Amino acid sequence: STSGNRATFDEEKKDCDDNTAISPSRIQKEWPAVHRWSLDKLINDPDLSERGFKCGEDDDGYTIRMKLRYFIEYLQHNKDDSPLYIFDATFDEDKFAKRLLEDYTVPDYFSEDLFGLIGESKRPPYRWFLVGPCRSGTTVHIDPLGTSAWNTLLFGVKRWVLFPPHVPKSVVKGRKLILPGEDDEAIHYFTTILPRIKRRAATSGGKGDYSNFECYEFTQYPGETVFVPHGWWHAVMNVTHTVGVTQNYCSKRNFDEVWLQTRSGRKKMACSWLRKLQEHYPDLARRAKALNRRDRFVMWEDDPEAQRRYRKKMADKERKKREKREQKEKERARKKEKWGDHRTTERRKETHS
After folding, report:
1. How far apart are CA 328 and CA 313, in angstroms?
2. Which residues 6+ apart lie within 8 Å of 85 measured at CB?
3. Which Gene Ontology terms cover its molecular function (predicted)?
4. Chain segment 15-67, per-residue pLDDT in tens
5. How many angstroms separate the CA atoms of 266 and 180, rounded?
6. Model's pTM, two decimal places?
7. How far apart are CA 152 and CA 106, in angstroms?
8. Which helix (H) or strand (E) holds 275?
9. How many CB atoms sit inside 10 A of residue 192's CB?
10. CA quadruple 112, 113, 118, 120: dihedral positive or negative?
11. How far from 153 is each of 127, 158, 159, 221, 336, CA to CA, in Å?
């Protein structure tokens, strides 16, 4: 493993083309967020403190939202093993919370954003406002649709681990090393599973799944930006309470991988994107069509059978949601009726006594 990789950002940018480097770098000190995003400032911010931010999901997959001032109070007193974590991608839709966009600018290295051609309302989620308690974090994962990412920390300290794309998923996840009853939450991954992975790699002799094993670990401090190339596995743990911002993006450097994943993962959007590329980046549109011909891939709008499957999938999804709502309404009605019967029985006892 490599610890504390501190290559300069110029070197990092050069190495980005080969998809081989990750390193922290200082951001511009003139960001308003540097002065506005401390916990004390946020909890007293009139535009933000009363706004609800996504901090998790319930067992049914529904979003849990909490007002920022309540979340910061929770953060300051929580002792959870796996705390809630504000990871909000919709703040720009709130007329007050969207002020956060005025507090930072995309670093010059990452200014190219080809998904921007599609428009804000149609593109996938790509930027997140982050507020994390100590011990919270993200489990090891690869960012979606072949995108790369940058992550800037404004407050607190984070611990990172990254694995190059050639390291097998089974190794990164530590699947053969997790004991029954254990989870892969960030705190457990960093304190228990990751050390097991590194010990196994050290004793493997570089054979089997651990051949050419690499992992990069470092600590991120306030004012530093981390670049994560597309296809790299990564996990993050908040060593202290933290506040930050992250964005995923597609540039010419990672276009091929993004196109391959988008055309099948976001079929309708890919059709719109291709038309925009034809207008603004004809060279990339030609490249996308060449990849389609190579793979004999048929775009969604040219495939009636795919459209039929999509409509059926959406209808089934809507039916399941409707059935779930109806089931919940029936359960509430039963509870209400049961409580009513209970109170009626109590009143009768009181009357007879």
Report:
1. 23
2. 55, 56, 130, 131, 132, 133, 136, 137, 138, 238
3. histone H4R3 demethylase activity; metal ion binding; P-TEFb complex binding
4. 444 444 444 555 557 899 999 999 999 999 998 999 999 998 887 778 899 99
5. 36
6. 0.81
7. 10
8. helix 267-280
9. 15
10. negative
11. 14, 8, 11, 7, 48
Among positive and negative, which fits the CA dihedral 249, 115, 54, 335?
negative
3-state secondary structure 319-330: HHHHHHHHHHHH
The encoded tokens of residue 163 equal 């694995």
Which tokens sit at 250?
A: 């597609």
CA angle 8, 164, 130 (to 5 degrees): 70
**Domains (range + CATH), the chain:** 2-167+214-253 (2.60.120.650)
Whether 270 and 258 have beta carbons less than 8 Å apart is answered as no
Q: Is the separation of the CB atoms in 200 and 177 below 8 Å?
A: yes
- The answer to whether 273 and 117 have CB atoms below 8 angstroms apart is yes
* pLDDT tens profile 177-201: 999 988 889 999 999 999 999 999 9
Residue 186 structure tokens: 């960030």
